[in-house]
Amino acid sequence: MSRDFIPDRFRDQVALGVGGAQGIGKAIAVRLGREGARVVIADIDRPMMARAAGELSDEGGRARQVLCDVRKPRQVNRMVEQAVRWHGRVDVLMYIAGVGKTAPFTRTDERHWDWTVDTNLKGAFLVARAVVPHMIKRRRGKLVFMASTNSWDAEAELAPYNASKAGVFLLAKTLARELGPYGINSNAVGPGLIRTRLTAPLLKDRKFMRKYQNLIPLGRVGEPEDIAGPATFLASPDADYVNGVLLFVDGGQLA
Question: Which CATH number is 14-196+224-248 given?
Answer without folding.
Answer: 3.40.50.720
